[in-house]
């Protein structure tokens, strides 16, 4: 019997806990807020996924050591920008032989570290034990058991296999992979591209415009990911184009919805004020742009999204900046 600990009781932590339970894995969740812990123990995380009746295999606690005790798999599902501080608080409770799974899709501000790097750095976890799960996995669809596939990437294939075995459910199909860098860059960057697509939608643009942003977004994501050592093929797979399509096209995506509101004329502060869930691209646009600059990679869409988020550049100015760039060959 595999046992898992899931740190984070938000949308994806809860939906993924449910996938693990449906695959026969016993799960203890850690949550920092007692009311959410109590709700999970009563069978439903009302605040994040009211539509999901939780399996009896799932319980929750506010004690990190209790959650982690005896776990074969530890799943981390907190906001990317709080992970380092969280690991400072409870990293020492994680079992030293567990596979440590990142569900997070972001890049740390300041350090420009990917989440697996933060886990190794702040959690003291050897890179061979770190596993990244990423793909077109909108939590609300997974919660109602709509079929989806995902990538389970680790440098050590046995760790990827352990996690894939523990999360393969009738409606959830994991594919193992060894490209941790490519999988993480694809997952973080698609959130920024989804902000741009949402913005175009909010401005009233149609499918040609959105498809153009998605495709050119994939081009710059692939450029960045391969410059960092990722495999170009990863970006054509589930963690790449698969997740990019889901996030850029779905009204369920928080990043997409955030962008729509910007396109409709709301300011970043106004959108933040009405957004109560994590829209990772809003922070990671800056760290991903920093990463691209460090490696001399041209990422024009990410650059414009960052200017909109951090400098208040207007959406029409962003459109003008993107369309007035010097023309070039598509493969350039
Ligand atoms: N929701 C989705 O469909 C998917 C989300 N992801 C990724 O999973 C990660 C988590 O996202 P969600 O669960 O959707 O976010 P969420 O906003 O639904 O939940 C975030 C969770 O983190 C907790 N939290 C907030 N601040 C915290 C802090 N300072 N310390 C500890 N915990 C804190 C919240 O209480 C909540 O339990 C993100 O990186 C996201 O990109 C990945 C795939 C799908
Ligand atoms: O990563 C996701 C789907 O795979 C969820 O996207 P959002 O964080 O934009 O909701």
TrEMBL record:
NADPH binds at residues 11-12, 32-33, 48, 105, 139, 254, 280. Residues 179-319 form the Glycerol-3-phosphate dehydrogenase NAD-dependent C-terminal domain. Pathway: Membrane lipid metabolism; glycerophospholipid metabolism. This is Glycerol-3-phosphate dehydrogenase [NAD(P)+]. PANTHER family: GLYCEROL-3-PHOSPHATE DEHYDROGENASE, GLYCEROL-3-PHOSPHATE DEHYDROGENASE [NAD(+)] 2, CHLOROPLASTIC. Coiled coil: none annotated. It is found in: Cytoplasm. Transmembrane segments: none annotated. GO terms for cellular component: cytosol. Substrate binds at residues 105, 254-255. Catalyzes the reduction of the glycolytic intermediate dihydroxyacetone phosphate (DHAP) to sn-glycerol 3-phosphate (G3P), the key precursor for phospholipid synthesis. The keyword Transmembrane does not apply. The active site is at 190 (proton acceptor).
